[in-house]
């Protein structure tokens, strides 16, 4: 399968690249600067593109079976996430599958009477509020999209580097919590879940979440 990954050298993006390569897929890694090409594995076809330009997105999307966006704007520029998401949706071909590394902002908190990760007043640290608002807006944009077969994968509360176990639980709109009350998954297992969805679509034009 031909898979293009935007943000291919970011924390999550590089793990998506590794997982896709390990499964034998043809991977195109899109980066924003020439200097970042050296960070891609040798088996990846590296492309420099401005993802804010739908025409450049369209060029990278040609002959691809699945598009995966792992883009995260730098701190202080979180509001650009929506425009970048819109450009990817506009640049994709009609009916093409587009998978987004989403945020947890939209998820309901168990036993909190309808409060979400974003709306609960005491849940998020101050440093995460801006990106949470951007991710909520990103999700709402995806919900209005009917041209492409989008999927939005929300992580649990904690998404950190770790080990690849190959195991995870699936959820829909509620934060997944383990037996110790923790909501977490490694970036490696998040990548497993994303590639499972890429290979076997179960959430077209829907959002879902994963966790241990």
From TrEMBL:
InterPro entries: NAD(P)-bd_dom, NAD(P)-bd_dom_sf, Polyketide_Oxido-like. It comes from the Bacteria. One of its GO terms (molecular function) is oxidoreductase activity, acting on the CH-NH group of donors, NAD or NADP as acceptor. Pfam families: NAD_binding_10 (PF13460). Gene3D superfamilies: NAD(P)-binding Rossmann-like Domain (3.40.50.720). Residues 7-197 form the NAD(P)-binding domain. This is NADH-flavin reductase.
